[in-house]
Design brief:
mainly beta, Immunoglobulin-like, 11-stranded mixed β-sheet, elongated, disordered N terminus
């Protein structure tokens, strides 16, 4: 992975489209040398964090001038980017790439995004500012995808509604499907609930007391999946990625509910992981 270097105040504005693409506009770039753009060889460079030398660790997008004097690079939704976090640089010729900082982001097309029918992988890219103030992208690439929507908490249960994407026949996929809560501490512990399907939409209800039955203190984390009937397809992780929020863990928060368990009183709440996947935490009360 390329090490971060000291950043000049070069900003990139980002515009998202409903197909998962991004366009980058650089308005305060200083030309490396005087003259025209006839010999321009600039690039926007995306570098994936944590990628090994044999991985797809770098993507270069050509930069070109626009009529208003800015530089522009396009990242179409059809360009396959592995899931992860990508740091954004600008480069000219053989010069060392420099980190970009966020400018104005127009992400309106990502809010309540509803992808059209397709069986191709679903590409999601959300630009965001790192804790150091640099520009990065959070990317997902999933097929199929189970998008979590409303989460309703009542009477010691949680009811999750959502929608299935990127399957050829979603009606048949949901017939007989179940929701699975898988315990990270012990993968043999799985709690299931029937799924109610209506076209591509689904819902299910999990009983908190069932999740707490095998809890023995500390914190148990349960990851939520959809599993089709009869092993017709691979299970799908529930996540919420079809909006403009790159990191939901500290933003989408849900109240804690307490339930009686064999070990004692347990505090239970749903939450989104650092990857925006949906999970449930069973732990000691604060």
């Amino acid at each position: 992975m390329r090490e971060a270097i000291e950043t000049a105040a070069t900003r990139a504005d980002c515009v998202a489209d409903s197909a998962g693409g991004l366009t980058f506009h650089i308005s305060d770039w200083v030309r490396p040398e005087p003259g025209s753009y006839d010999d321009w060889s600039g690039a926007l460079v995306l570098v994936r964090r944590g990628a090994g030398p044999a991985d797809d660790a770098e993507v270069r997008l050509p930069l070109g001038p626009t009529a208003d004097g800015r530089l522009q690079a396009a990242l179409p939704g059809t360009v396959a980017l592995p899931e992860g976090r990508w740091d954004v640089f600008v480069a000219y010729g053989e010069q060392e790439p420099r980190r970009l900082v966020p400018g104005l982001h127009d992400l309106r097309s990502l809010v309540d995004r509803r992808p059209g029918p397709s069986t191709s992988p679903l590409s999601v890219r959300i630009p965001y500012a790192t804790k150091h103030g640099n520009l990065s992208l959070r990317t997902w690439r999933r097929v199929p995808h189970a998008e979590a929507g409303e989460i309703r908490l009542e009477d010691g249960t949680m009811t999750v509604s959502g929608r299935l994407y990127r399957v050829e026949h979603p009606d048949g996929w949901l017939d007989g499907a179940v929701a699975e809560a898988r315990c990270r501490r012990d993968r043999s512990l799985v709690c299931t609930a029937p799924v109610r399907g209506d076209g591509a939409t689904f819902s299910f209800t999990l009983d908190y007391a069932r999740l707490a039955e095998r809890w023995g203190g500390g914190a148990d984390l349960w990851d939520l999946w959809l599993r089709p009937a009869d092993g017709a397809a691979a299970p799908v992780r529930l996540a919420r990625i079809l909006d403009d929020v790159a990191d939901k863990k500290e933003i989408f928060t849900y109240p804690v509910r307490t339930v009686d368990a064999p070990h004692g009183t347990a505090a239970v709440r749903p939450y989104y992981t650092v990857d925006n996947d949906l999970s449930v935490r069973v732990a000691d009360p604060d």
